[in-house]
Amino acid sequence: MPTALESQTYLPADSVDLDPIEALLADESSDAFALVGPGGRVPIPAEVHKLLLQVVQAMHSGHSITVSPQTQRLTTQQAAELLGISRPTLIKLIERGEIPCQRNSSRRTIQLKDVMDYRKQRRERQLAAIAATSVDLDDDDLDTIELRALMKEARRANALRRSAGS
């Protein structure tokens, strides 16, 4: 059995029927879930319930699950890996004030919550940018020249946004 703070990946079992478990966890009419065992009944906090539901849904879809415990304070390298960016890029984000950090002598540490908040905000900005550059291609009034002009403008806006961020 793995130790408590070790990363572990779990594969979905083909022989286990997850339908009833998923149905029970997904039942929104009940807000009180509990574990029941020989020692009695223990209520499950909302965060643990959401985690269990996500795990069961993923495994039911045939995905494996990796549980990787994280500390609340991350090094810049750990935060960069979590965001999928390089450490120098993370340092630039910190210096621009986009991600807060704490300094301990010559080292920086970042709160896990701040990294997760930044990741969520970045995803929202990406989705907004995609929506802003979307064009209805079924629009009969839009000809090829107009479409090219719109695409050129979108590329220009993206390049300006990137250069402003560097």
From TrEMBL:
Superkingdom: Bacteria
Keywords: DNA-binding
Domain Helix-turn-helix span(s) in chain numbering: 74-123
Keyword Nucleotidyltransferase belongs to the record: no
Entry-linked InterPro entries: DNA-bd_dom_put_sf, HTH_17, SinI_DNA-bd
GO molecular function, one term: DNA binding
Presence of the UniProt keyword Repeat in the record: no
Gene3D superfamilies for the chain: 1.10.1660.10
Name this protein carries in UniProt: DNA-binding protein, excisionase family
